[in-house]
């Protein structure tokens, strides 16, 4: 009881002591900076602790055989009997007469391939990754490479192409990464024309006549269309 007759109330801070900390002296310290003592059994393994290292997992020696056995099959690209005279990265366009505009045909490596036996040379261009054929034709002596209007890295020519499995007159435009590459292509293309010219002596066919018509179209379009 207090002197004034009132009942004494408990002091909620009495348990804190003079430091005001019920958790130990020196303010509110929640154990930060206090490192736990190592367990006694952790020291029994010696200074290196070799006895406490986990066991090394053993390598699995199991062998799994495929359910279905597939025989290795050799694939033919049609280029096995040919030598590459030229290989250049390029982008190919074809002229769509229906819409009267150039449309991209594909990006890939263009090759001039010479047959090992008959020595004839064809142009082959495959799409990157898919390897789909985008251009495939004999480099005829009558073909004319024309510089694309306003672009000295591109050539336009017409030919009877066989890339889609049937003969078709196409107007192509091929663009290279640099002027030097474009000139390299032109030089080798013309050399190949001379090679094929000495080998091809057959009379003119309907395909040749179609190519001549396409040449006239190429002359007209090369000055107007832009890639």
TrEMBL record:
GO terms for molecular function: GTPase activator activity. Keywords: mRNA transport, Nuclear pore complex, Nucleus, Protein transport, Translocation, Transport. One of its GO terms (biological process) is protein transport. It is found in: Nucleus, Nuclear pore complex. One of its GO terms (cellular component) is nuclear pore. Residues 63-198 form the RanBD1 domain. The keyword Secreted does not apply. It comes from the Eukaryota. This is RanBD1 domain-containing protein. It comes from Chlamydomonas leiostraca.
